[in-house]
Amino acid sequence: MSEYEKCPLLYKWNRLDRKKPSVPDNSYYAICGIVKQKLFEDFYNKEWWRKGAECAPYMEGLAESYFNATLEWAKVDWNNPIAKLSKEQLIEEVRSGVRKGIKIIKDQKLLTKDSKSEVKLTATLKNKINILGKVDFIIRHSPEKVWIIDGKDTAKPDKMPKVDHRQLLFYSLLYYENYGVYPEKVGFMFWRHDDVLYYDPKKGMDEILKWTEDTYWKVRNGKFDPKPSSSNCHFCKYKNDCEAYTREVKEGGVTFADDVTEINLF
Ligand code: SF4
Q1: Residue nearest (by alpha carbon) to ligand 1 atom 5
Q2: From the CA atom positions of the chain, what is the Rg in Å?
Q3: Whole-angstrom Cα distance, residue 39 to residue 137?
Q4: What is the mean pLDDT of residues 169-190?
Q5: Which of 58, 184, 227, 236 is the residue whose CA sits 20 to 30 A from 1?
Q6: What is the dihedral of CA 47, 51, 57, 58, to 10 degrees?
Q7: Distance 255 CA to ligand 1 centre (A)
Q8: CATH no., domain 114-218
Q9: What is the mean pLDDT of residues 18-39?
């Protein structure tokens, strides 16, 4: 929904048409977050946490092979000027993320025997709209005490409070529709900053429901107008295929800040 809000044409090409960009996307900024996410998915789902003190070195040892496996499908253009760090430095960043991630999990008590990662939740709302979402981490302390956590690789600490937390509220809604109770906590875990920001899992639910319904009907009615802007287009993988983008660049409507260093994947 956030992608549709950002640019309906991007949503259509990416989610509905599954269009391949004519120039492959450069995953330089995203790859560390993807690899950390995959390592912690396996930390929970393969129960690596049972290794105790050996867990962190075990995961650090896997950083390079997980990075290389990701490179098989996520292209990185090492010759692009944005690639200021080498592959080895990025792998070290992943190792650092592993150490920080484990520290956050310990400090914030984000581990129970009944914890799972990459959990797909689906539901049908009262208005018959089907919704689905894939939750990074569900930490179940008991049936009534459940925490939903989403991992973020945000680089700059001042950007942490700006991450769109409606994603968490949407997961909260999905959880409620499945289990009849809201999660006790929802939060973003920031791999680089030893921190979790929590939000009220019930606050703003009317707005989420309205947003869901509005988006659904716009998609059903085929409303996919492009929304070119500097922030929307900067990381868009369809730049080279998009007439609206080309037009805006010619007219000076889209300009890029030099200090853009990260993307919000939601
Ligand atoms: S380049 Fe910009 S306008 Fe075109 S699809 Fe991407 S985000 Fe939308």
Answers
A1: 10
A2: 19
A3: 12
A4: 95
A5: 184
A6: -50
A7: 13
A8: 3.90.320.10
A9: 92
